[in-house]
Design goal:
56% helix, single chain, 11 helices, 294 residues, 10 strands, alpha+beta, three-stranded mixed beta sheet, globular
Length: 294
């Protein structure tokens, strides 16, 4: 979609310039129309999965990424949301050097979380960084309802002073108050082993259900959650297990809402990254204080 370059302003500030490649917006708009046609066809064959809705949302998110004014707005929103947390930072935007197809932002010098230097840190330093990263994604989802939906190692830097820098903020997701509370209730029930509530949250918030036997569905979800509780949340990859719950939903013809998929994707990425540095990380345990507040 674009390219990224180092630069220096005339005042001597080190910056990053992100530029959308010529012709990309037109190509994406064309592809979105072709995907919409495919969605109409798939809807006739697999209406229970809502392919038209899924494709429309995917196209919308992709088209937003080429309007760099949105990324500038997102960066400033995140900075405001985390103003009270000095160790989780976002790049300042140079609005005078930015527009729809060009974005100029503050440059940060640091290490990728998967770099050899970070891997060589002491156990205590790595755990602190993991705790900061977990706090960031959990707070975004369960407190602010505004979260980075593409938080992979390339979009994060660890600074020598112990701060975490998060950038590439074009792909974000927002949760309304109701959706935020539903997700908090869902993860809290999951973390505490309450399978019946997990089953009910998915079912009552599904855009489409055609399950022939709710009791069988609830029993399967409850048994699955109970097995995880016995293993201990520190020994499981939470987001991977939520993905397996989605398999149960499909078998029982229950469609998950799209925001639940986006939340799961964000948790999966953050947890996978965190476990590389601290294998005993449990996002559910990290999230419990925020879930209790919600």
């Amino acid at each position: 979609i674009g390219q990224v370059h180092r630069a220096t302003t005339r005042d001597g500030d080190p910056v990053i310039i992100k530029v959308v490649k010529p012709g990309i917006p037109a190509i994406l708009r064309r592809d979105a129309k072709l995907l919409a046609l495919a969605g109409w066809t798939l809807e006739l064959v697999f209406p229970q999965y809502g392919p038209r809705r899924i494709i429309r949302e995917f196209a919308d998110y992709t088209l937003r990424e080429v309007d760099l004014r949105r990324e500038a707005d997102n960066a400033e929103t995140f900075a405001a949301n985390f103003a009270d947390e000095p160790d989780i930072v976002f790049p300042a935007i140079y609005r005078e050097f930015s527009g729809e197809r060009v974005l100029t932002m503050e440059f940060f010098d640091g290490q990728r979380p998967d770099s050899k230097k970070v891997q060589a840190m002491s156990h205590e330093d790595r755990e602190r960084l993991v705790d900061l990263g977990a706090e960031a994604i959990i707070r975004m989802i369960y407190k602010d309802g505004f979260f980075h939906a593409d938080l992979h190692p390339g979009n994060m830097r660890f600074e020598p002073n112990g701060r975490i820098v998060l950038f590439d903020l074009g792909l974000v997701a927002e949760l309304g108050e109701r959706d935020r509370l539903v997700n908090a209730q869902l993860l809290f029930a999951f973390a505490t082993g309450d399978g019946k509530t997990v089953a009910r949250c998915f079912f009552e918030n599904a855009p489409h259900t055609a399950t022939p036997d709710y009791d069988a569905y609830e029993a399967e979800i409850s048994a699955f959650v109970e097995r995880l509780r016995r293993r201990g949340l520190g020994n499981v990859q939470l987001a991977l297990e939520i993905g397996r719950i989605f398999d149960i939903l499909r078998r029982h013809h229950i469609q998950a809402r799209s925001h639940m998929t986006m939340v799961n994707l964000a948790l999966a990425t953050a947890e996978g990254l965190g476990k590389r540095l601290a294998p005993d990380l449990s996002l559910a345990d990290e999230a419990l204080p925020y879930l209790a507040e919600a």
